[in-house]
C-alpha cells in the first residue's frame, strides 16, 4: 500500500538515505526515488518515467525497472536509468528534466571521483571494426563516461575494445561458443558469442582517498562486475587493460565496492543456491571471506541487488526480488 519504513531510529546510523524502486505513493504506483531524512521521514519524492524521452522502441511502463540511480550532492539532482529503458536522465530537486541522453543504459550509474563525470553501462551504439553481419563480432555492449553537467558522452569503451586490449587473457572468451569442427580439423575457427556474454552490471572508479590501500591500482581505475562470467575486474580506463580479476567464489554477483582497507566487497546473489551473501575479496591475495551470510535473515535475491556501508560501518542491503532493504549494525543485528 506504500513505502513502509520500520526500525529503531535511535539504533540506526544517522544520515540521509536515498531509496529507489517501484512503489506506491499517494495512490499512484510507479518508479520512484525517495529521500529520507535522518528520522526516516520522506522529504522529497521523484516520480521517474520516460515521458519526455523520444525513442521509437520505448518499453511499456510496466516493463521498465529503475536500475541505476546516483545523487549529485552539490546540486541535489539525481541521475537515473531503467532496465529496458531508452535513456539516461538527470532531474533537479523539483523533478524537472535537466538533460536526457538517449541509449540503452542499464544497471549502474556512478559519480567519478572529481564529481564532474559519470560512469555508466550501455548496450548498443558502440563503433565496431566488424561487419554488421559478422557473427563472430563481440556483442555491442560496454562502458560509458559522461559529462555530469550536460549528459554528453565523453568516452566509450566497448567490449570489442576490451577484448583487443587484453589479447591472450582469455577472460572475455569464456562467453564465446567455440566451434569444435572435429571432422574438418579447421585451423582458423572463430566461435560465435552468446547473446549476453558479460552482463556488465556495475562500474565504480577508485577514489584518490582510497588509492593508497590498493598499491597495484591507480586512482580512477574502474571496478567492473561481469555477472555472466562470475567475474569482478579492475580495468585501466586509459589502456583498457584488465589489471586484476577474480573469477568464481560468487555466483552471478552484483555491486562490487572498493573498501578503505584494501578489500573489495561483493554482493553475491548466489543464483540457484537459495541464499545471497556479502563477500569480501582481498585484492592482494584473492582470498574471499563471507562478510554476511543471508541465511541468518532469509536473505536471497536471485537477480539484481545493491549494498553499501554507512558512515559508521553498518551494512545496508537491498534485496529487490524480496522487495525490501535492511541495515545491520556492527553486531549484524537488523536496525532498519
List keywords for this structure.
336 residues; 4-stranded antiparallel beta sheet; 24 strands; globular
SSE layout and pairing:
Blueprint: E1 17-25, E2 28-36, E3 42-48, E4 65-72, E5 77-83, E6 87-91, E7 97-102, E8 104-111, E9 117-123, E10 141-147, E11 153-158, H1 159-165, E12 176-177, E13 192-193, E14 200-205, H2 208-211, E15 222-226, E16 231-235, E17 242-247, E18 254-258, E19 263-268, E20 277-282, E21 288-293, E22 306-309, E23 315-319, E24 324-328
Antiparallel strand pairs: 1-2, 2-3, 4-5, 5-6, 6-7, 8-9, 9-10, 10-11, 12-13, 14-15, 15-16, 16-17, 18-19, 19-20, 20-21, 22-23, 23-24
Describe the structure.
The protein is mostly beta strands and 336 residues long. Helices cover 3% and strands 42% of the residues. The protein contains two helices and 24 strands. It has helices at residues 159-165, 208-211, and strands at residues 17-25, 28-36, 42-48, 65-72, 77-83, 87-91, 97-102, 104-111, 117-123, 141-147, 153-158, 176-177, 192-193, 200-205, 222-226, 231-235, 242-247, 254-258, 263-268, 277-282, 288-293, 306-309, 315-319, 324-328. The chain has a four-stranded antiparallel β-sheet with strand order 4-5-6-7, with no helix packed on it. Strands 8-9-10-11 form a four-stranded antiparallel β-sheet. The protein is globular.
How many helical elements? Answer: 2
Biggest beta-sheet profile: 4 strands, antiparallel
- Percent of residues in β-strands: 35-45%
Assign a percent range to the helix content.
under 10%
Write out the strand line-up for the largest beta sheet, numbering strands in chain order.
Answer: 4-5-6-7
Whole-angstrom Rg = 20 Å
Gap from first CA to last CA: 19 Å
Q: Tell the overall outline.
A: globular
Mean pLDDT: 93
Helix and strand content put the structural class at mainly beta
Low-confidence stretches: none
Strand/helix succession? EEEEEEEEEEEHEEEHEEEEEEEEEE
Tally the beta strands.
Answer: 24
